[in-house]
Amino acid sequence: MFISKKKPALVMMTLVSAMAIMSACGDNKSSNTLSNAVPSNTEASSNANASAPAAEQSTAPAAESVDELYAKAKEEGKVVVYSTSGRANDAAETFMKQYPGIKVEVSKVKSDEMMDKVTKEQDAGQFNPDVIITKEVSGAVEEEMVMQGRYLKYLPEDIAPMVDEPYRTQAEAYANYVEFRTLFYNKSTYAEAPVTNWWDLTTPEFKGKVYTADPLSSPAFMDLFTTMVINSDDMAAAYKEKFGEEIKLNGTENAGYEFIQELFDNGLIVLKGSDDVLDAIGKTKSDALGLAVSGDVSKNEENGWTIAPIYDIKPKTSVPDSGYFFIANKAPHEAAAKLFLRWMMGEKDGTGEGLAPFNEVGSWVPRSDVKTKNDISFEELNLWLFDGDKLYNTAPKVRDFWIKQK
Amino acid sequence: MANKPAVTVKRPRLHNQTLNWLTNPVHLIGLAALLFLAYTIVWPVLKILYTTFLWRQQDVRLTGEADPGHFTLYHWTRVLASDMSMSLFYKPILNSLGVGFAVSALSMLLGCGLAWLVVRTNIPWKKTISFLAVIPYLLPSWILSQAWLTFFKNGKIGGTPGIMQALLHVSPPDWLSYGFVPIVFSLSIHDSVFFFLIVGAALSSMNSQLEEAASVSGAKRLTVLRRIVFPLVLPSILSGFILIFTKAISSYGVPALLGTPVNFYMISTMLYSSMRSRLTTEANVLSLTLMIISMVTIYLNQRVVGRRRSFVTVTGKDSARTLTSLGRWRYPAAGMATAGMIIISVVPLLVLLLQSFMLKEGEYSLSNLTMHYWWGGSDPDINTGEKGVFQNPIFMLALKNSLYIAGVSSVIAAVIGLILGYVVARGRQSWLGRAVDQVSFLPYLIPGISLAAIYISMFAKPTFIIPALYGTITLLILITVVKELPFTVKAGSASMMQIGRELEEAAQISGAPWFTRFRRILLPLNRKSLMSAFLLVFIGAMKEMELIILLITPRTETLTTITFYYAEKGYEQLMNVILMIIIAIVMTVYFLAVKFGKADLTQGIGGQ
Questions:
Q1: Residue A237 exposure: Cα atoms within 13 Å on the Cβ side
Q2: String of DSSP letters for A76-117
Q3: Of A60, A144, A389, B565, which has the fewest CB atoms closer than 10 Å, so is most exposed?
Q4: A326 dihedral zone (left: phi>0; alpha: psi -120 to 50; beta)
Q5: What is Dmax (Cα atoms) for chain B?
Q6: Is 90 exceeded by the pLDDT of residue A326?
Q7: In the predicted model, is pLDDT for residue A76 greater than 80?
Q8: Which parts of chain B sit beneath pLDDT 70?
Q9: Residues 203..242 of A with a Cβ closer than 8 Å to B: which?
Q10: CB-CB contact of B179 with B95 (8 Å)
Q11: CA distance to A2, A126, B315, B491, per residue, from B430 (Å)
């Protein structure tokens, strides 16, 4: 009719007209979101320091007593939790018995998706969650959520003195449990840990016998390798200790990168997830080693594995993967949120039932007054510091390096 | 009508033309459809496109040059022309294309072959076979890849040895165990039902007089297939091809499980990685490349289909359908088809069912059987006290929500698909039809997470006449409908293309308004395609995870959120119970549809 002949250009025209229609429709909206998005980003980045006090603010009124909180929380009636871990569900069950009248609603969301969800919600003026339980994503949670005042730190004054550093003052927030990536071996093959140094994995003995979950799809695994790159001096020292000579770099930038490259050269096998790795080494007798999450040791029986984690590797065993607790910005049920957080922390003396799901084999509660279920205490673990800022900026480079190894 | 250029046209004529153009229901509906698609699909895609040309705060991580908020081509250069491009883009894209074409071809073979057997021949057990064909799609796709590994895995990924290795003491080569070959097989088996349904619908509405005429004139059976049947179902085949192609290149779970051990990455797996590593813009660029590839494929498809004049096979005249006789191959063919289907669908299903009754995994003894996971109470020794599914306090609520979301969205999706399909089929020669065709298939290629994230900001606040939908079930329904548009529109247009205009014209002359024509003529004639669309969207919605997880607010529990919870805890049997319940529901819906909707997939359209 209007256009009687069909030309390839028509496809484009169609699109253009569609765009025109649509931009006309969504005009007022687009100007909102887009103009908002840009300044809020720049603003937040430039005044990272300025917004830090905002984050600390919420630690101040932490002195409220449990009774006061419960009274207020009953009026609020419920608490909404976004959590990366199912442990929150277990704590919620005991909480609702202890504090009738407050309903806990837990949504399980992956850490990176949670960042998107909360950011979009808050930008649109919707404040849904009260409690945030999340792992780090290579420092992005701190940079993109904590510094922007979207997630707020909360550590009650009466509990703070018992909390181990860095989680009392230095870290981005209090973490109720700490896990990490480490090497696992099969107990039925080895009587004791077969390696003591990360560089052992690059020796012919372990050629084609090292498994890892794919760091490309699980950033927490990449964090360990990134930390090795950041602390390349440690890696170089460990190399010297192992082989008795200075490390020679084969075209890589430092000992951290060199380690990754030598792992690949030695036939590193990448599997989809942590469970696949433990299936590979733990289901039947195997002399291979696998990189997996320390907390997985608790699934040993359930999955028919005979695996054991190694808790002492040189130069350092690993980097912590902490389960942080936050209150969400403008939480609609703030008192209930605080009450639930306290419950999960095990209350003032750390003996509360709410802590039980977090104090498990393979994970540590960084409180001096809480007895761990592991053979080794949190202080004795030889871990690198989780340097969120450096990780955030180094992780993409290490990821690039990893991709190029393919 | 308006074949001459409009340069010298006078006002009144232009006015008349416009009026005339607008009174055509195809155009009116087409415009409405385009508006809907523009808001729900094109707008989000443009937003994604826009972000790829801007520096973000996150980009400071990649390069010191980043200047947040300003224009840049960095992201495109990084993906397409940097020292990263080979590993980040070119190798994965070749893998994606390879898998896409191979899966489409294999599914075509499986789907069309089966459709032809069931619809056009006198093969026995038709109902059984067409029911079995739906089952692989019911199973989560990872189950098929897991099954593949159980048979063919070699020593490389450790664990218990594969069955082939255990029995034959031969280690299968890597190419058989991982990467391209198993990915193609798993995806083809899972998705070929789309081909089966689309092509089956087309075949069943084909007038067999055409075949008879050819046979009478002395054409051999193969010639009839090649010269008559094939060209007539070509639009359906091409639709199926593009659909499966898009589905395959955007799939994540199967390539991740089977590809990683041999470093076989596709764009979809790379994209997932970018997303999880908070390199959102990189993920956006990657998903746009997938969209561009598919736009090209669709365009080529339109060229092929557009050149042919007509595919009309349903006209006002009724016709008897005669079936091709398979002769002595009748029973062997039926046996082989059934056996094949049983191996790929019934066996995995039964294994899962059995596992849901097994107290401990992998222990095959009578004493190990239990109903605990179905309705047992809390036992601290099993799954740390987790109760059976029917005892789970939120189970009933979740079941209700799932049924509601899946039920409502599949009905809406099927009808919208048919209406848009009508626009595509009738407007095949105009820009309107092509635009609707092009745009409607994009949702498969927008990563679910990105789409959901954009929908949060689009629907969190009231805009125009659209109320704030975020947090309501309506938004979940909307996004399910949108996400399934590629399939529903393709199915709708393939089936609409076969229906002659004269039926509508006759009604029009008799004074029937468009809505009556749609309800009384088009809807009944397309019943079967409508039914398949409904069924597959229903299944898809029951299985959907990604979209729902992000858009759900804590109050909306569904069966998939329970599955998610069980999966995280490693409660496999409980997951299997939920899966079985979902499958039972879908089967019930299927049988109800066949019985009361007269939508038997093996019979001709309109329940002839």
A1: 8
A2: H-EEEEEESSTHHHHHHHHHHHHSTT-EEEEEE--HHHHHHH
A3: A60
A4: beta
A5: 89
A6: yes
A7: yes
A8: 1-11, 205, 207, 305-322, 361-364, 378-381, 383-385, 545-550, 553-556, 568-570, 597-608
A9: 211, 214, 216-219, 222
A10: no
A11: 9, 43, 23, 20
Is residue A169 classed as helix, strand or coil in its secondary structure?
coil
Instruction: Output Rg (C-alpha) for chain A, integer angstroms.
Output: 24
Task: Tell me which residue in A19, A282, A404 faces B84 most closely, judged by beta carbons.
Answer: A404
Helices (H), B344-466: 347-355, 372-375, 395-426, 431-440, 448-459
- Burial classification of residue A194, based on how many CB atoms lie within 10 Å of its CB (0-12 exposed, 13-18 middle, 19 or more buried): middle
- Angle at Cα B293 formed by Cα B291 and Cα B296, nearest 5°? 110
DSSP-assigned states of every residue in A245-309? S----SS-SSHHHHHHHHHHHTT-EEESSHHHHHHHHHSS----EEEEEGGGGGGHHHHT--EEE
Q: Give CA–CA dist B154/A109, Å, rounded.
A: 35
CATH 1.10.3720.10 for domain B91-307: yes
* Per-residue pLDDT at B553: 66
Which residues from chain B sit within 8 angstroms of residue A131, using beta carbons? none
CA distance linking residue B391 with residue A91, whole number of Å: 19
Segment B362-413, tens digit of pLDDT: 666 777 777 778 877 766 667 666 777 887 777 888 888 888 888 999 999 9
CB contact under 8 A, B460 and A124: yes
- pTM to 2 decimals? 0.81
Distance from C-alpha of B563 to C-alpha of B579, rounded to nearest angstrom? 8
Nearest to B277 among A113, A399, A404 (CB): A399
Model confidence over A97-113: pLDDT tens digits?
A: 999 999 998 888 888 88
DSSP states of B471-484: TSHHHHHHHHHHHT
Domain boundaries, given as residue ranges, for chain A: 49-177+321-381, 180-319+396-404
A24 touching B, CB under 8 A? no
Instruction: Specify the CATH architecture of the domain A180-319+396-404.
Output: 3-Layer(aba) Sandwich (3.40)
CB spacing of B39 vs A29 below 8 angstroms: no
Residue B508, beta-bridge partner list: none
Query: A49-177+321-381, superfamily in CATH?
Result: Periplasmic binding protein-like II (3.40.190.10)
For CA atoms B599, B603, B605, B608, the dihedral sign is negative
Q: What is the pLDDT of residue B320?
A: 56
Sign of CA dihedral B532, B538, B544, B548: positive
Instruction: For residue range A137-156, list pLDDT tens digits in order.
Output: 888 999 889 999 999 999 99
Q: Do A400 and B84 touch (CB under 8 A)?
A: yes
- The answer to whether the beta carbons of residues B145 and B186 sit under 8 Å apart is yes
Task: Say yes or no: B6 contacts chain A, CB-CB below 8 A.
Answer: yes
What amino acid is encoded at A130 in this protein? D
Q: Which two tokens stand for residue A201?
A: 């994995």
Token digits of residue B360: 């401990």
Q: How far apart are the first and last CA of chain A?
A: 54
Can you tell me the distance from the alpha carbon of A199 to that of A35, in angstroms, rounded to the nearest whole number? 50
Q: Is A383 helix (H, G, I), strand (E, B) or coil?
A: strand
Which pLDDT tens digit goes with each residue over B444-471?
878 777 787 788 778 877 777 777 777 7
Residues of B in contact with A45 (CB under 8 A): 57, 60, 68
Residue B171: DSSP 8-state: P
The SS3 of residue B456 is helix
Q: How confident is the model at residue A5 (pLDDT cuts 50, 70, 90)?
A: very low
- Encode pLDDT of A197-255 as tens digits: 999 999 999 998 999 999 998 888 999 999 999 999 999 999 999 999 999 888 888 99
Calpha distance A343→A351 (Å, rounded) = 10
Using an 8 Å CB-CB cutoff, list chain A residues near B569: 86
B390 vs A: CB within 8 A = no
